[in-house]
Amino acid sequence: MTTGTSIDELAERWREDLASWALPADILEQAETPPWTHPVSMFLVTDAITDSPSHRIARAAVPVGGSVLDVGCGGGRAAMALIPPAGTVVGVDHQQAMLDAFADAATRRGAVHHQVLGDWPDVADLVPACDVAVCHHVAFNVPDIVPFIEALDAHARLRVVLEIPLRHPLSMLNDLWLRFWGLQRPVRPSADDLLAIVRALGHDARMERWSDPEFGSRSPMSEADRLQFTRIRLCLPPEREAELAEALRAAPPEQGRELATIWWDATEVCR
Known about the structure:
globular; 7 strands; seven-stranded mixed sheet; Rossmann fold; alpha/beta
């Protein structure tokens, strides 16, 4: 990426790179279940949350009894890891079942909680500003990334913390797409591309790369459910589940996932 690339160029490249992940129509048409569904069971928060760079960086900016906004919250792991010091958590998600899980996790931790149903930033006007805004594993689903980031920044009094994989999260399935469909998958965008966009917007953002050895193993999903979920992701019919299971057994064991934490402090102390 060359120095001096404009924010419009960076944003358009991000949009085009994400569009390149679209599946061919002939594959989608024969899929029995939409491949982009997210089972709530994958995002349920257990009582113990292992600390991480993302949690520590966000927690350092949360005042005692402060508030956290969690965009694309799922079950709320990113926010729940900040209780305490946070006393109030606000979750935004487009699935009501995810918000229900978020509310349950916050209640169990004794935190005040609010939930807003909808897509960010479409519902941003319904969401209060909070001390810290967190957003984990969402950015690769956002083609129009600039207003998404700017709405996060506008709702954070002190700090914004993003967590994403270094590479597109579906990259882990690239070998399987090639095996079952002969389909070559893209390699962009990346966490570095997102960092460049955030900086081009004028934010003094930093990025920490780290490895999460627990990624993919926290969910209470059974092995059978994991297999079914992977089959659906790959648009395979049920009768090919045994073949997929054999391919997964033959694949090298997962060693976690390489992640990036991107964060910046709000330029205004009060908003």
